[in-house]
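Mods, move this if it's the wrong board.
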Amino acid sequence: MSVSDEYLTYVLDQLECAGPVQAKRMFGGVGLYLDGLFFALIADDVLYFKADESNRPDYEAAGMGPFRPFPDKPNVMQYYEVPIDVLENRDSLRDWAQKALRVAERKAKR
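Not the wrong board. Structure tokens:
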């Protein structure tokens, strides 16, 4: 897993629409935080947002799958790939990011 500086800069620029996102490199990827909430990650230059039953259908309807930290194993994480058309449209991206933030907030309260 790796994340290019160019892709990270692009994603952070796009996510300015959601607020002051902070990036932290970890395990070859990048964790994205807003207001202290871990709501997204980047791995292999792909953006993933936190998902649960409230927003997972959006990803599934767009044909997006979950993050698999080890492609050769069945393990998945509750982060789903953000469609490229969403990433490229700041209005859509803000909406999807806000949903992911609400998921992260609910998880943090547990």
